[in-house]
Amino acid sequence: MTKRRNFIRQTIGLGASLPLLGSLIRQMALSHSGNGVIPTIMCSRGRGWGEKVLLPAWQKYQETGSILDAVETGSNVVELDPEDTSVGYGGLPNELGVVQLDASIMYGPTHNCGSVASLEKIKTPCSVARLVMERTDHVMLVGPGALAFAKMHGFREENLLTDRARRIWLRWKENLSSNDDYLPPEDGNYGLKKRPGGTINVLGVDANGDIAGITTTSGLFGKIPGRIGDSPIIGAGLYLDNEVGAAGGTGRGEEVIRTCASFLVIEKMRSGMTPQKACEAAIKRIIDINGGLDRVDFNDKMVAISKDGEVGCASIMGSKDGPPEACYINESGIHVKAGRYYKEWS
Ligand code: GLY
What we know:
Layout: H1 3-29, E1 40-43, H2 49-64, H3 67-79, E2 101-107, E3 112-119, H4 125-135, E4 140-142, H5 143-152, H6 163-174, E5 200-205, E6 211-217, E7 238-241, E8 245-251, H7 253-258, H8 261-270, H9 275-289, E9 300-306, E10 311-315, E11 325-330, E12 333-338, E13 340-341, H10 342-345
Parallel strand pairs: 3-4, 10-13
Antiparallel strand pairs: 1-5, 1-11, 2-3, 2-6, 5-6, 7-8, 8-9, 9-10, 11-12
Bound molecules: glycine (GLY).
């Protein structure tokens, strides 16, 4: 069945029943549904991010009963935050100083997905990705086509380069080479040894065990214009299966693409691994294809949630404070998930 026919069938079904089921769904969101599922929303960031990202997402879920609305709401918070330099508005730009955003979304009951890549001038790329999923018969729109599509749906073109991001970019450019004509100011030795990435995954399962997920990012700082990372690639930066769970990746996107890492996590979970073990298996795969940890000078992190609400988190390197973290929210509140990094389990 085509994506379009699937969507229409589902829309008709939901449209007929939503008014009657609305209050019931809201109550179910607060409690176990009796089917072993614990409604849960997780994000790939740790301590402190639950309050910021997951609380609004959870509130949205309670208001609407829609796990898709919930993960979008949580993702939009980060996309709209000018202080966050790795996602949406305020994200660090490409080598020409232009902010180009990547995002993807996937919805379990229909197994539909949508994504945008190299999208400029729109603050909330995951919402455009959602429209690609729901209002086109395609999966992915890129660059000027994605922008035209967003404008068609009423999104406003805006300047995404905040002054803070512009200054970071300018110092980086001025310090790139001593053989060009850019001179940093005397106090301006802002030499970034590693160019920061960022990204956020927001994944959720509702009381029926239905799953939704989003990955959104401004990608690698200083990237070659047009470079697309893993975040908008279904199977790489995001994947889910409504019978199994959802997974997402952050960090160096090229490696996540090379291993289809989110797809790999889901397939490992399908074969019986916990979300934690499945994330560790994908991280190990990235290390293995690079010839071992000694040859790895980047970081990647995988997070996952199972259909019944169990979460996992693993990375190549630990953070400066120790193990990687994710966080999740369920009926009992906000929780920090202490993940594991490769040296801990290898
Ligand atoms: N993981 C984000 C990126 O590489 O663009």
